[in-house]
Design goal:
CATH class of the largest domain: Alpha Beta
Bound molecules: S-adenosylmethionine
CATH architecture of the largest domain: 3-Layer(aba) Sandwich
Largest sheet: 7 strands, mixed
Radius of gyration: 26 Å
Distance between the termini: 48 Å
Number of helices: 15
Shape: globular
Number of strands: 19
Strand content: 15-25%
CATH superfamily of the largest domain: Vaccinia Virus protein VP39
Helix content: 25-40%
Number of domains: 3
CATH topology of the largest domain: Rossmann fold
Length: about 500
């Protein structure tokens, strides 16, 4: 509806609702009610350009997923692209003073002279160019180095500016003069990043909330994902940080924006400082250090298939993350947490001794001899039973809760693995005479499981987008695949899905 011949078009409540639904669906961006004037303001010009009379007409256009180009325009209008050179400068001090020296140390120990960094949500390019300048300056000379910086954004307009790499004096004011002199050359309209630096950066349109658009085959030493996730809702943030974590080198770092606190959002990353995060597991698979107290309280986790209500753990109950190959039991009360795709976690409980434990395994049997035995069900089950018995548990009292073997991956390799795992674990427990009192196997989604070892209660949450889990499992499976041809012959890895 037009407010007047030349006045702004009014955005009605149902139109705003519809637009924010589309924006959320396409970009994961969660717009609060207070953003209504901003949406109305930013889309006025687009309506005029298209000759549309009302926001309802525009909504009809973007509701149709066939209109991908207009959806892109919509997101371009809505995204907030504020950025600057050396924004949040402590991250670049960290890159220069900690990350690069660590890489140099590894190079001295024989690792290749290779650096991979991702600026995820790079806006108009100031962030990736600052990264490139910092790295190049810290290395002194790029000769012999294989440095690649991926810079991505959803907004095609900002990507174009980023790649064009021309900035005016005002924008360059935060770049120290020696760096400006070394890495920029004068052009019409300002200064352009020079060819040596431009050669380090690749630009790509990547929608951070659409994991199918990532298609990234490398692992990064550092991921900058700053001032982007702030616009997403919590489940989207959780999935995003899991996905980013899966693309970090075990020695890598994830840097978030000053107001993006990952506490409770990720159980695969732990904070080093407010905005610096590292993967939980070191290359050896051992934990880097104690897991911080979770901000997500268990009441947020829907109940498991067992008839239990929400847990009320004492605040001092330790929480332990169990990775692939992990086995843990406790007689003093612990909350064991894991995330599963096609893998299996078995939770055993002795109600009388109040001893409980969990394992997390990848495949039923070991045919390679090359990997930690606890990655295989047949060993992981024995290890869990033994650990429980050492703590005073008695085998005849054990009951089991079994989770995983998710079928979310289609008819490819992990689907096949999931089925084998489910068959194996149920047969194993039946043979051992251990009753299965609850199970969630073969779901069409990944699972997050928390097991209270004292009470024997399990809390399960399903989530559909879990690239972190899927990727981690794929990597484990790929490692096994290359370890043994006879084994690879048995299960087709990375078959056409
Ligand atoms: C405020 S800027 C941050 C730029 C830079 N990282 C910084 O901290 O200076 C946020 C950027 O995230 C991008 N963005 C928003 N949603 C996105 C999504 N779903 N996928 C990829 N980028 C997105 C926006 O287009 C915008 O350029």
């Amino acid at each position: 509806m037009n407010a007047g011949a030349s006045g702004p078009t009014q955005l009605l409540p149902h139109e705003f609702e519809g637009l924010r639904r589309v924006i959320r669906q396409v970009a994961g961006i969660h717009l609060r009610e207070t953003k209504k004037p901003l949406v109305a303001g930013r889309l006025q010009r687009r309506l005029r350009e298209l000759g549309l009379e009302s926001f309802s007409d525009y909504l009809r256009l973007v509701e149709d997923s066939a209109n991908g180009d207009e959806r892109k325009e919509l997101i371009n209008c809505i995204t907030t692209n504020k950025t600057s050179f050396f924004r949040e400068p402590h991250h670049f001090d960290f890159l220069r003073g900690k990350v690069i020296p660590e890489i140099l140390e590894r190079v001295r120990a024989g690792m290749p002279k290779r650096i991979r960094i991702w600026s995820a949500g790079c806006s108009t390019g100031q962030e990736p160019w600052t990264i490139a300048m910092t790295v190049a300056d810290a290395l002194g000379s790029l000769a012999g180095w294989d440095v690649r910086i991926l810079a991505s954004d959803l907004d095609t307009n900002v990507l174009e500016s980023a790649e064009h790499a021309v900035y005016d004096d005002e924008e360059l004011a935060s770049v120290p003069a020696p760096l400006r002199d070394r890495w920029f050359e004068p052009v019409a309209g300002g200064h352009r990043v020079n060819g040596a630096l431009r050669a380090l950066v690749t630009f790509r349109r990547i929608n951070l909330v659409d994991f199918s658009s990532w298609k990234i085959r490398t692992h990064f030493d550092v991921i900058f994902c700053r001032n982007v996730a702030i616009y997403f809702d919590r489940p989207t943030q959780e999935a995003l940080f899991d996905g980013l974590a899966s693309l970090l080198e075990p020695t890598g770092y994830l840097l978030s924006g000053h107001s993006e606190n990952l506490h409770g959002l990720s159980h695969v990353l732990r904070p080093l400082g407010n905005t610096v995060h590292v993967p939980m597991a070191q290359p050896s698979g051992a934990l880097r250090g104690p897991r911080p107290a979770p901000a997500v309280q268990p009441r947020n986790i829907p109940p498991s298939p067992s008839p239990s209500s929400s847990p009320s753990p004492s605040p001092s109950t330790p929480e332990i993350a169990i990775q692939v190959g992990g086995v843990q039991a406790s007689a003093t009360g612990a909350r064991l947490r894991t995330t599963l795709g096609s893998c299996i976690a078995v939770c055993l409980h002795d109600p009388e001794a109040q001893v409980g434990g969990m394992n997390h395994f990848l495949l039923p049997h070991d045919r390679t001899g090359n990997r930690g035995p606890s990655s295989f069900g047949v060993h992981a089950m024995e290890m869990l039973i033994n650990a429980m018995m050492k703590l005073g548990g008695e085998r005849h009292r054990f009951v089991a809760k079994v989770f995983g073997a998710s079928q979310q991956f289609g008819p490819g390799s992990q689907h096949h693995v999931a089925k084998k795992n489910a068959d194996f674990v149920l047969r194993f427990l039946a043979d051992e005479g251990i009753p299965v009192v609850a199970q969630k196997l073969g779901a069409r989604s990944a699972l997050s499981v928390v097991f209270d070892t004292a009470e024997g209660r399990a809390f399960v949450r399903t989530f559909n987008r879990a690239p972190g889990v899927v990727e981690a499992e794929r990597r484990h499976l790929a490692a096994l695949s290359s370890a043994s041809r006879s084994f690879a012959d048995d299960i087709t890895f990375f078959g056409a899905a």
